Amino acid sequence: MRLVKGMGVILTIVLLFSVVALGAANWPSKPITMQVAWSAGGGSDITARLLMPYVEEIIGGSIIVVNRPGAGGEIGFTELAKAAPDGYYFGWTNTPNSVAFPIARETNYQIEDFAPVANVIYDPGVLVVRTDSPYQTLEDFIADARQKPNTLTVGNSGTGGDDYIAVATLENMTGISVNQVPFEGAAPNITAVLGGHVSAGAINASEVKPYVESGQMRVLGLMDTERCHLIPDVPTFRELGYDVVSGSARGFSAPAGTPREIVEKMAAAVEQAMQNPDFLKKAEEAFLLLKFMGPDEYQAYLFEVRDTIQALYDQNPW
Q1: Nearest-CA neighbor of 126 among 193, 57, 38?
Q2: Which of 89, 97, 155, 191 is the most exposed place for a label (fewest CB within 10 A)?
Q3: At CB < 8 A and 24+ separation, what contacts does 228-235 make?
Q4: What is the CATH number of the domain that holds 40?
Q5: Domain final residue pick, 247, 268, 302
């Protein structure tokens, strides 16, 4: 009797693995959801909508991009973590937001709830103002903030995100105090800057490039270790004497438990799509700063960022 029961368990396990393997082999057999945890018009949304049509051609299936903005990305991250790990749901897990939130507060997901697939973009942060702003330089902004504590406002794309952390770092470094204003992504943050609703905006380089080029915005400083070719005349914060390095790696993940074969197929398709000359042309026109990482490298990067953010938070909780 025990032998019969044991054989039954083994048979069940074999059948389960066979079903999973068959599903991976036939993937995709229905539309795939690609979730963006921020509003339409931001860097992640633009990247997803430019890239996914090329990925569709490679995998032979349709990909539907949907926006799930809210709480700086946390709503989307939570939805991704709870989604079925069947290979038909993916979501953008940008850093530092995706790894910072569980450190700073209680969340309904952890980074372990994701199966990293591919990183697509690395976009350094900038501090920008309208061109008619009285702040011509970063030092102008800091000097005025020092004279007017808790008066100047700086827009960001969500509390705990790269923009927020960068401005908080600048505050700690200089002794200034500003009011940070969170928005649900870069698009409304940009609108607030252009409308004069905030004194400045902490955004990403690629997202402000069109407005700098059109003369609507002025960049006060770049938050990277070296200058960016999109805005080559803009000095880094380090050049100006402030060691603020910040940016967003924009990549996407599947829910943990998604078959590895599907994860690898999707990653390979993304890597191939990113080499398509037509996509590269459109990416350049959209000022996208491409940086591919496959599943293992992207996962290692996410955990490295988590360790860095944890150390920063332990020193100075936000």
Answers
A1: 193
A2: 191
A3: 228/124, 228/289, 230/205, 230/206, 230/287, 230/289, 231/126, 231/205, 234/126
A4: 3.40.190.150
A5: 247
